[in-house]
Amino acid sequence: MDQQKLIAAIKRMEERLHRSDVHMREEITGPILDAIFDENTILRKEIEGGLTFDFYYRTKIARDFWLAEPDLPDHVWEPQTTKLLTILARQAKDVLIGGAYFGDQALIVAKQILPQDGTVHCFEPNKAQFHMLQHNAERNGLGNVKAWRLGLWKNEEGKMKLIGEDSFAHAELVSEQMEEDSAVFSTTSIDTYVKEQGIGKLDLILLDIEGLEQTVLQGAESQLNLPAGEAPNIIFEVHRNYVDWSNGLDQSDIVKYLQSFGYHIFALRDYNSNVAMTGKPVEIIPPDRVYLEGPPHGFNMIAVKNLSALDDPQIKICYDVSPKLLTHKKIYLHQPTE
User: Fold this and answer.
1) What is the pTM of this model?
2) I need a surface site. Which of 3, 88, 261, 266 has the fewest CB within 10 A?
3) Domain residue limits at 280
């Protein structure tokens, strides 16, 4: 059976056997695909608009992108996060992405801001994914992607190493004795980077760096201190393994830290997958009205100083629902409100 026939068969299986109490992709169809490809398999897929991505079959990101419905999706991963990025980047000149991976969201933004001579500054310490990011940018003719195999941190003095598998890995500081390890990488701070690059202000920051988000933002105070209208909009991930929201998300350290600079914060409702959401608004939730029950999980948040940045017909505020959208849950908490 060729790959296209296999994909079609898996999609039919998911549609016909769908049950609200069973996650078909995770429990049945996904393992079938996992048994066929190994971590060194490189696949190629195009998205709507013509961008083409090469990627290793190593994580759920690769698997769900490969099984995307429709076959030509408008995103690679996290549809609503990608949509919000494109909304906020409409007039952007400088966008910084920490945890750029193989360019799944960076390239979409880079293509969008190319006409206004915008640049996407990408940081990806995973060596294989860093080279794939460079490859994908070159293959798509996106010379406005600046890629760095560096880790973002609060300063440029750290040496770090990734612990864990691929997109699930988190960075930890290493001792001096380990600094010669080939897997060890250097760090920089956002403040240091913008100064060295002669960037007056960043328009947009995306951080998906497995628990280091607040530490990295502590190294970006020159940007966070800018007034509304000049300070960057920020999309960042929080996860229960790294962020203590036991007293409420609004009382978590990272939310209060950004609020101290005058930011307004919202949780972003999204699928941790590739799911068609064309025409559906991006739903955001005030942090004191977020439903957080369930096993440890993570989701993205958006921080803006100027609330007019969210004054868009494609953005909708909602309340008392989960930011975690799940295809196998049919209750209102985990599905788009519409």
Assistant:
1) 0.93
2) 3
3) 78-334
